[in-house]
TrEMBL record:
PANTHER family tied to this protein: METHYLTETRAHYDROFOLATE:HOMOCYSTEINE METHYLTRANSFERASE RELATED, UROPORPHYRINOGEN DECARBOXYLASE
Family, as annotated: Belongs to the uroporphyrinogen decarboxylase family.
Keywords of this entry: Cytoplasm, Decarboxylase, Heme biosynthesis, Lyase, Porphyrin biosynthesis
GO MF, any single term: uroporphyrinogen decarboxylase activity
GO cellular component, one term: cytosol
Subcellular location: Cytoplasm
Documented EC number(s): 4.1.1.37
Uroporphyrinogen decarboxylase (URO-D) domain sequence ranges: 153-169
Source domain of life: Eukaryota
A single GO BP: protoporphyrinogen IX biosynthetic process
Name listed for the protein in its UniProt record: Uroporphyrinogen decarboxylase
C-alpha cells in the first residue's frame, strides 16, 4: 500500500521521501536525511511576517497558521523532515496554567508554582484531546498539505524541562527554585513529574493518531541536573513515556512511529538514554560523534550535532564542517541536525548550505544500496 495511515480513519498522500523514517529505523539510505530543530522561526522573514500580525500562541492555536509556518522552511530548503509548529509549553497550559510569550524575553508564567500546595490549582483530570485539539488539527492539516514531501514530526517537552518552566515562571540561569523542590519536596516533585508524564503520553499519542510520523521528546534542561538528580527525576519519566506511548498505540491498533530523545547536555547518561526504548538519540554539539557512537552502541540512530553557531561561518566553511560530520558519523543510523535550535539572527541561506552539503557528501553510489 502506498498511502500511509495515521489511524483507522485518516489516509494521507503517499510519502515521497522516507529517508528520515528509514534512518530512524536503521535501514540503508541513499543519502543522510537532514532537518533542523527550530527550523520554523524568527530567522525566516516569512515567519516574522506571520508573527507581525499574530501573537505567538495564536499561531499555535490556529491550525491554518501553524500549518503555514511549518511549511515555510520546506519551500526554501531540501529538507527531509518537518516539525509541526507548536510549543512545549502548551502542556502546562492544558494543565490550567497561564503562559505568555513576551517579545525579547521569552515565555513567562504570571502565576508560577511556588509551593507544593499550588499543585492543587492544576487540572489533574485534563483531557488533552479536548484542550489541545488545535495541535492535532494542525498536524492533520499539515500532513495533507505537505503532500508527502517528507515526514512530519510531532513533539513534546519532557517532564523535568516543563516542571522547570512551571516553577521558575520562565527561563533561569541557575534553576535554583525548581531544584530546591527536588531537594525539599521530593514527593511533591515526583507527583508533578508523573502528572506531566501522563499528560505528555496522551499528547504524543494524540499527535501520532492525528498523523505525526515521528515524535521528539525535548529534555532541553537536562544539563541543569547532575547525574544523581537526572537518574532520579528525569530518566525514569523519559523511559515511562516511551513505554506508555508504545503500549497505548498497540492497544489502539495504531502503528508505532520512531521516537527521538533529546536530553541536552546529559552526556553522562548516553548509555542509559540509548537503552530507553527510543529509536533515536539526539546529541548536542559538545560530544564527539565517534565517542557518542561507541557509547550508544549500534542499535540506535544518532541525531545531531552541528553547533548552531557554526551557521555564522561562511558557506564554504559550513560545507567543510558538514563533510567532517559525515565522515565522523558515517552514513548509516544518522540523522543530520543541529545540536540545538536555530537562532533568530541566523542567515537562512547558511542553513541551506548545511543541508545541501550534508546531502552532497553523504550521497551513496546506487550499487552499494
Ligand atoms: C525550551 C523549549 C520551548 N519550546 C521548545 C523548546 C524545546 C527546544 C529548545 O530547547 O529550544 C520547542 C519548540 N518551540 C517551537 C518549536 C516549533 C517547531 C520548530 O522547531 O521549528 C519547537 C519544537 C516554536 C517556537 N517557540 C518559541 C519561538 C520564538 C518566539 C516567537 O516567535 O516570538 C518559536 C519559533 C518561543 C519559545 N518557546 C520556548 C522558549 C524558551 C521560547 C523563547 C525562545 C526565544 O525567544 O528565542 C520553550
Amino acid at each position: 500500500m502506498d498511502s500511509s495511515k495515521g489511524n483507522d480513519t485518516l489516509v494521507f498522500p503517499p510519502l515521497k521521501n522516507d529517508l528520515l523514517l528509514r534512518a530512524a529505523r536503521g535501514e540503508k539510505v541513499e543519502r543522510v536525511p537532514v532537518w533542523a530543530m527550530r527550523q520554523a522561526g524568527r530567522y525566516l522573514p516569512e515567519f516574522k511576517a506571520v508573527r507581525a500580525d499574530n501573537e505567538f500562541f495564536k499561531v499555535c492555536r490556529t491550525p491554518e497558521l501553524a500549518c503555514e509556518v511549518t511549511l515555510q522552511p520546506l519551500r526554501r530548503f531540501d529538507l527531509d523532515g518537518s516539525i509541526i509548529f507548536s510549543d512545549i509549553l502548551v502542556v502546562p497550559q492544558a494543565l490550567g496554567m497561564t503562559v505568555e510569550m513576551i517579545p525579547g524575553k521569552g515565555p513567562s508564567f504570571p502565576e508560577p508554582l511556588v509551593n507544593p500546595e499550588d499543585m492543587e490549582k492544576l487540572d489533574f483530570k485534563c483531557d488533552v484531546t479536548k484542550s489541545l485539539s488545535y495541535v492535532y488539527e494542525a498536524i492533520t492539516l499539515t500532513r495533507i498539505k505537505i503532500d508527502g514531501q517528507c515526514p512530519l514530526l510531532g513533539f513534546a517537552g519532557a517532564p523535568w524541562t516543563l516542571m522547570g518552566y512551571m516553577i521558575e515562571g520562565g527561563g533561569s540561569k541557575t534553576f535554583s527554585k525548581v531544584k530546591k523542590w527536588l531537594y525539599c519536596y521530593p514527593e511533591a516533585s515526583h507527583k508533578l513529574l508523573q502528572l506531566l508524564a501522563d499528560t505528555i503520553v496522551d499528547h504524543l499519542v494524540a499527535q501520532i493518531c492525528a498523523g505525526a510520523q515521528l515524535v521528539q521528546l525535548f529534555e532541553s534542561n537536562a544539563g541543569i541536573l547532575g547525574p544523581q538528580l537526572f537518574y532520579k527525576f528525569s530518566l525514569p519519566y523519559i523511559r515511562y513515556i516511551s513505554k506508555k506511548v508504545k503500549e497505548n498505540l498497540t492497544s489502539k491498533g495504531v502503528e508505532h512511529v520512531p521516537m527521538i530523545i533529546f536530553a541536552k547536555d546529559a552526556h553522562y547518561a548516553l548509555e542509559e538514554l540509548s537503552e530507553s526504548n527510543y529509536e533515536v538519540v539526539s546529541l548536542d554539539w559538545t560530544i564527539k560523534p565517534k565517542n557518542a557512537r561507541s557509547r550508544c552502541g549500534e542499535n540506535v540512530t544518532l541525531q545531531g550535532n552541528l553547533d548552531p553557531c557554526a551557521l555564522y561561518a561562511s558557506k564554504e566553511e559550513i560545507a567543510s564542517i558538514a563533510k567532517e560530520l559525515v565522515e565522523s558519523f558515517g552514513t548509516r543510523r544518522w540523522i543530520a541536525n543541529l545540536g540545538h535550535g536555530m537562532y533568530p539572527d541566523h542567515d537562512p541561506e547558511h542553513l541551506g548550505a548545511f543541508i545541501d552539503a550534508i546531502h552532497k557528501y553523504s550521497e551513496q553510489p546506487s550499487d552499494e544500496l
